[in-house]
Amino acid sequence: MSYITLVELLDSPGATELAQVAGPEHLVVVPAALLIATINGADRSIWSVDEQAAADAAVATITSARTDADQLIDGYLRVRYALPLLTVPALLRKLARHITRYELHRYRVDAEHPIVRAYRDAVKLLEALSAGRVTLGAADPIAPDTSSSGGVEFTGRSAQFADSLRRI
User: Fold this and answer.
1) Rounded distance, CA 147 to CA 137, Å?
2) What does the pLDDT read at residue 17?
3) What pLDDT is stored for residue 130 in this prediction?
4) Is residue 22 situated within a structural domain?
């Protein structure tokens, strides 16, 4: 299971950015329209065979970065959750987006770049999830049940306290 799809990555960070960072470095940047067509399985016949091969290589690079993000997220979640999760909470999609973007930019940005900061924040949040300091929200499969009335709940022998008072 992947926490984010290639189509979701086309929305953000966007096809243009993905085409710029995922294409083979020694070649011209893959046109964003070709990358969109490749990811969506659309007709690519208007592009040359070399351009199509470059787009395929770019998609492979994006997929590899996404797989790296999935494995990092799984490593943290595995401590508390049974994997794979039945549904992907929005929070995990957001973290996967930040981590994938970082993986694609890893060697192109300095330590203070917003992409690096977003990655570090994502890892900190994963650490908090793993430690139980944060939950996945309403979609959290192990979040405490908050559906009770919030009142005091008694269990065990109800007369135990009264019995102890009689003995005094």
Assistant:
1) 14
2) 95
3) 95
4) yes
Q: Which residues contact 164 (CB under 8 A, 6 or more apart)?
A: none
In a domain, 56, yes or no: yes
Q: What domain count does the chain have? A: 1
Q: How far apart are CA 154 and CA 150, in angstroms?
A: 12
Give the number of other CB atoms < 10 A from CB of residue 83. 9
Annotate 80-145 with three-state secondary structure.
Answer: CCCCCCCCCCHHHHHHHHHHHHHHHHCCCCCCCCHHHHHHHHHHHHHHHHHHCCCCCHHHCCCCCC
- What is the reported pTM? 0.82
Residue 141 pLDDT: 78
What is the residue range of 43's domain?
6-138
Distance (Å, rounded) from C-alpha 81 to C-alpha 50? 44
In a domain, 100, yes or no: yes
Would 156 be classed as within a structural domain? no
Contacts of 125 by beta carbon, 8 Å cutoff, 6+ apart: 91, 95, 134
